[in-house]
Amino acid sequence: MTASTFEQVRSIASDIFGLPLDKITPESSPETIETWDSIQHLNLVLAIEEKFGLQLEPEDIERMKNIGAVSAMVEKLQSAPR
Amino acid sequence: MTEMSEPTSNPAPGQRNPPNLRTDIDSLIVQGSFDPASRRLAELWRRDPAPATASFVTSRLEQLRDKLPLTKFKLAILRSFTVEPIVPLLRAEAFAYGIDLEVHVGDFNTYVQDLLDGESSLYRFAPNALVLAVRTDQAAPELWRDFADASPEPAQHAAERVVKSYEQWIDVFRKQSQAALIIHSLEQPAVPSLGVLDNQSDAGQSGLIRHINHELRRVAAGFHGAYILDYDALVARHGHEQWHDERKWLTARLPIAAGHLLHMAREWMRYIVPLSGRTSKVLVTDLDNTLWGGIIGEDGMAGIKIGPEYPGAAYQSLQRALLDLSRKGILLAVCSKNNLDDAMEAIEKHPGMLLRPNHFAAVRINWTDKAQNLREIAEELNVGIDSLAFIDDNPFEREQVRASLPEVTVLDLPQNPLEYAAAVRNCPVFERLTLSTEDQQRTEMYVAQRQRAGAEQKFQSKEDFFRFLEQEAELAPVSPLTLARVSQLTQKTNQFNLTTRRYSEAQIADMAKLPDWKIFSIKVRDRFGDHGLVGVAMTHDAGEQCEVDTFLLSCRVIGRTVETALLAHLAETASRRGRKRLIGYFIPTKKNAPARDFYQQHGFTHQESNGTGTLWTFDLETSTLRCPDWIKLQT
Asked: Do the bridges between strand B129-133 and strand B180-184 make them parallel or antiparallel, or are there none, so unpaired?
């Protein structure tokens, strides 16, 4: 995972979950972020799709267990367009 | 913080997420600088209207909403699909137009119960407007997936049943609530169940859905404040296949793709902005590189680009969009840094121009700064600064206006002139939900007003000018035809209004039935045009005296002696009924100073001042009031 993708994902997560940037780490997950509920998960998915011009499959969405996994997924999808 | 230190908000294309804006906003909020914080927040949203930004904007809006002069508006949404991710986008967009939007979302598919049950959370929320967003699959399942199973007869019945249900829902809602109702039309399937066979009959899937949508328009037109949102046209505008996201539909009941959620929010805004009164009444336009390509002062008549061929055609498209606004009663005005003669020659004579001098209600072509010119235009047209919208290709001019006049709606014209017209057509401040005949004639009225002002300067004496005007006034008792306008004038008129008493249509209709009350309206026209119904007087007789209860004139005609004609008519008719005195109050307000000396100037004697105001009296037995002989009076 490159720094620039992670920074962009982190900035989105900071907006969506209402937390300062430095509180978002690759390990941040629904367990560590109180506001990460199902509605905010959908908002995160939509923000990622809009920002990176992607359309995520249900399986991709399942894999979004923490912010690090989200960044890795975005990079994979960007490098291998379907 | 001074305005000079504000960063320029003309980002290079692609740079849409300035890193420091968010931190700036947060520190401005901490410092208590709420207005600058609000301006930066709106700027952030304009630059990057994305879902993540919407979350940031709405969370900061929570901290600012009580400290800013925002218009509060409550919107309820009853729905058959997931709308939750659209709500932050909608609230951020509303904020950018000065609206603090509170949103109530009903549960999935409970719209029928919510509408029918007067105790439901919908009615407890007391919305200003309700969006009824039901998709075809829910409203008419027989016409959606299962269409191929249905025989033609049940499908026809289903269509009729759908229309009847909507009619019943609107009716029930109208009995419970005065809120505006915005009804989504039903969308067509991207591909009908029977393929091209469907196109061969009116009773096919798409034919029946089209029939329902047609009927919904008719049904909605029968109710006050019920409006159709053409959801099918919205989807078509962006393309069925782009708009729809089957994955999200099947996993989260969200049928709209991430990139189009903003377009749904913006379509709702086209209704919310006019319903909340945040519309613009005037569009002020720049000239060079906005209304035509090139610079008239340098390129000359032959060099500027405006005409039916590209690139002039792009500017003609914008002019056509402005003409359409003008037909909706939105006034057009020019504000341009140019030599007046150069620019006027192009507007008057260039063969490619669609807009001509008579389309503009006010013109400021000079080298003064634009903020000052905009202030003058608002004053000349007698509207608030917040009623102005401004278009200019130059980002520097736009920022200067934003910084000095934050109340003005400044449109961000795209870089490419081909996109100018769409930017204007998509801006919700120009939407109107109803149109009166007065709206349609508004530009002509203002242009005539400018001609009058021009003529006035040519006359040595006021009296010569009045004679030249050839005014005709028509006085008549209030009638069912004029009742609405008479009531509207008592509600709206602030300046030349002696008592500022507000009356509803029902109150005026009741008073008109009483024998001792007289209610007159006055219509005025002159050589330049028709002013329409511009004045109201109401009197009631008590013993020997006749008291003027209400006396008002629209500011369009004050100072042209029409007020004298109206007062003389009151005196004459009162005298004919045997009254001995005409009396009336002047009740001062913050705005009615223009009417303060009215009774004194017409020979009334000051009788007393009390808690109500000053009372004036006129002896009808010893004195007479004459209608000026330059006004032709019809009664």
From this structure: parallel
